[in-house]
């Protein structure tokens, strides 16, 4: 054992010496290439003296990087992540200037701009050299990965893998079942292709009506997405708009789910949550939105940034990739415009930076955190990789841009699988998605007015001139007037035409191709009859529009009804998937609508766009040509890719339906490996649809969410 320690110490000294030598040569080369970077005195120095200066500067820079950088990054944890990424170059350049300042005799000088370039190049070269030296050294490789995730294992030597195995759940945000299959068949995802049928089984699962990350991930991690009707909605009792990806809203949704189920979440025992909207009850957090609004020690979510950016070479590499991704998006957008690609949405402004953050910064931080979790031997890890979803919204779910992102995600999956070979326990890697995406031109692009414009027209309220001038806007006005005259039993020529009181302006909120219309001045869910008395033209205008598939409203006579074109009106209890207004929206549509209708915060009017079953096209009510959030097409078809060593998610011939059922499958898999459970007395986990989960044998009371 002592001999092994000396051997490792000797290897470490050799690596430090080699990296120092390479850094010195790099500094000498840059001094020769850059006119504003100097390693000699004004009178000139011998080659030996210049080399000593370079070695001193490289050594000082390396020491400052190792000692000062982690402290600086920790101090900047309150800085927004996007700003922190952009500060990387400035911080590195500042450290180099300090290193040159402490070189004896002041021979090293550089302009601030040049110092930034020199520091970036030296960090990248040092990182590449260190990595190359550690390629064949498993211990060094593991130690480097620990450092990236800010976790150092105690004990040194690797131990044999204990039972039970751990489980890593990687969520590929927005990647639908069919998209995954096509990506594997086309060669875009060779790692996934190698798993399909060989080591893993692919199982589709159908989302709820609200096919978006907020509803799906809340159900998957916390076992309930009851009363989550959309990505954003208006709550009349609290008079506020809930948006799933806002920290305060995410925290409240998580609190409600825990209160409803009496369950801290999927990851309560020895779990880690990385890059998610919700914690799942995990104690180890990085980039978890529901915890981001908390202050003090309870908020450990930002620690993921520190874990990653504490390695300056890593920070520089990610920053360079960030800039490259911004340039890639600008180039792809320009080429799409030159080719005349349709449909299209605007991709300017801050979007290139938002895309680069999702596809580079968040991916790198989350992947590094997952690798650290595996090397630390955690029993369960759940991580969300959002890159594809962000790009597909603006480039289209089947576009070359989106599939290029899938190629890079596949490489991340391969890296995580490789790291699993070095982990102290065996790991089962499960890939899954929270929803898919459906293509299609936006509602505004197809018809020349927004849904809000159409609603205002149906209510007799002013609409923007651009909407009035559009063909669809004129048709909406005519339809609204005709419906109003019919409702008021007036003749077509308006002689002193009456108009009902309009009340307050309606709130119109979009969630992909699902929209919610609420009247804030009415403290309860308005009925169809009340809406018709107040706005006689509204419901006929909406239901008759070609861009709208169906409406859901409450009826005083029938409980609730779904309205379709041509005056179709079907009570919710009588809905069928293959007939009536839901025909063509896929299996399970009727059950999904019925379930949402039972939510306390369902809107006064729920609007789902049209869907063309032959093309899969829908119309998003926001600026997205790849959308999700409602019913129609591939957005409702998510996937589970699980190892054969785990039991099948469902028996043959049974469809896996809803995020809450996926939660029960994942819990079962964790129990199969004796992984994280909620172990306290025979607990029955309540379900919003009246079902209960099977009893879990435990011995105590319910373990609360450690962050609750």
Automatic annotation (TrEMBL):
The keyword Transmembrane is assigned to this record: yes
Residues that span the membrane, as ranges:
12-34, 46-69, 76-103
> SUPFAM superfamilies attached here?
Alkaline phosphatase-like
> Which parts of this chain are annotated as the region Disordered?
675-708
| Highest taxon of source | Bacteria
Q: Does the keyword Cytoplasm apply?
A: no
User: Which Pfam families would you find in this protein's record?
Assistant: Phage_holin_4_2, Phosphodiest
**Keyword annotations:** Membrane, Transmembrane, Transmembrane helix
User: Per its record, how is this protein called by name?
Assistant: Type I phosphodiesterase/nucleotide pyrophosphatase
Q: What is the lineage of its organism?
A: Bacteria, Bacillati, Actinomycetota, Actinomycetes, Kitasatosporales
């Amino acid at each position: 054992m002592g001999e092994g320690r000396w051997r490792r110490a000797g290897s470490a000294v050799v690596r430090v010496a080699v990296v120092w030598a390479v850094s010195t040569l790099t500094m000498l080369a840059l001094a020769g290439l850059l006119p504003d970077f100097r390693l000699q005195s004004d009178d000139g120095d011998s080659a030996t003296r210049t080399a000593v200066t370079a070695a001193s500067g490289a050594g000082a820079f390396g020491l400052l990087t190792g000692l000062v950088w982690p402290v600086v990054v920790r101090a900047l944890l309150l800085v927004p992540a996007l700003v922190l990424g952009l500060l990387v170059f400035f911080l590195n350049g500042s450290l180099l200037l300090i290193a040159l300042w402490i070189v004896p005799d002041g021979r090293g000088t550089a302009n601030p701009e040049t110092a930034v370039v020199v520091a970036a190049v030296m960090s990248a070269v040092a990182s590449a050299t260190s990595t190359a030296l550690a390629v064949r050294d498993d211990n060094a490789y593991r130690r480097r990965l620990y450092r990236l995730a800010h976790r150092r294992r105690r004990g040194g030597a690797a131990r044999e893998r204990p039972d039970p195995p751990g489980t890593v759940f990687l969520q590929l945000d927005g990647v639908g079942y069919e998209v995954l299959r096509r990506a594997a068949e086309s060669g875009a995802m060779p790692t996934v292709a190698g798993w399909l049928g060989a080591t893993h089984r692919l199982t589709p699962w159908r989302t709820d009506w609200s096919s978006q990350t907020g509803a799906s991930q809340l159900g998957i991690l916390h076992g309930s997405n009851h009363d989550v009707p959309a990505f954003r909605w208006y709550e009349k009792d609290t008079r506020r708009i809930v948006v799933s990806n806002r920290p305060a809203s995410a925290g409240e949704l998580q609190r409600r789910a825990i209160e409803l189920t009496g369950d801290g979440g999927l990851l309560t025992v020895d779990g880690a949550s990385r890059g998610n909207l919700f914690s799942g009850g995990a104690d180890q957090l990085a980039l978890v939105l529901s915890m981001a609004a908390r202050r003090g020690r309870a908020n450990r979510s930002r620690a993921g940034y520190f874990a990653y950016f504490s390695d300056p070479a890593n920070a520089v590499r990610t920053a360079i990739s960030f800039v490259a991704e911004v340039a890639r998006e600008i180039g792809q957008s320009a080429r799409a415009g030159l080719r005349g690609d349709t449909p299209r949405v605007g991709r300017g402004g801050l979007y290139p930076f938002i895309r680069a953050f999702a596809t580079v910064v968040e991916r790198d931080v989350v992947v590094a955190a997952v690798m650290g979790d595996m090397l630390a031997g955690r029993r369960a890890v759940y991580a969300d990789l959002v890159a594809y979803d962000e790009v597909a919204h603006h480039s289209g779910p089947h576009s070359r841009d989106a599939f290029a992102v899938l190629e890079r995600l596949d490489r991340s999956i391969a890296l995580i699988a490789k790291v699993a070979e070095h982990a102290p326990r065996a790991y089962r890697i499960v890939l899954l998605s929270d929803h898919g995406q459906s293509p299609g031109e936006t509602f505004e692009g197809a018809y020349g007015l927004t849904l809000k414009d159409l609603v205002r027209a149906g209510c007799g309220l002013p609409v923007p001139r651009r909407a009035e001038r559009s063909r669809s806007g004129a048709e909406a006005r005519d339809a609204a007037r005709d419906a109003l005259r019919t409702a008021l039993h007036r003749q077509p020529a308006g002689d002193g035409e009456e108009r009902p009181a309009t009340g307050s302006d309606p709130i119109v909120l979009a969630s992909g191709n699902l929209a919610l219309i609420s009247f804030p001045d009415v403290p309860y869910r308005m009925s169809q009859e009340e809406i018709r008395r107040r706005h006689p033209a509204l419901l006929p205008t909406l239901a008759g529009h070609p861009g709208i598939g169906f409406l859901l409203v409450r009826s005083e006579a029938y409980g609730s009804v779904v309205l379709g074109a041509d005056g179709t009106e079907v009570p919710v209890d009588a809905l069928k998937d293959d007939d009536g207004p839901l025909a063509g929206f896929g299996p399970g549509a009727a059950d999904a609508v019925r379930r949402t209708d039972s939510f306390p915060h369902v809107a006064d009017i729920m609007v789902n766009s049209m869907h063309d079953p032959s093309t899969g096209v829908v119309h998003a009510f926001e600026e997205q040509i790849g959308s999700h959030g409602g019913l129609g097409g591939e957005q409702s078809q998510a996937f589970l890719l699980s190892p054969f060593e785990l039991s099948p998610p469902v028996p043959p011939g049974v469809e896996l339906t809803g995020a809450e059922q996926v939660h029960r499958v994942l819990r079962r898999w964790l129990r199969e490996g004796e992984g994280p459970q909620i172990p306290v007395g025979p607990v029955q986990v309540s379900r919003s649809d009246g079902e209960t989960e099977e009893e879990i044998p435990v011995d105590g009371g319910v373990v609360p969410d450690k962050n609750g």
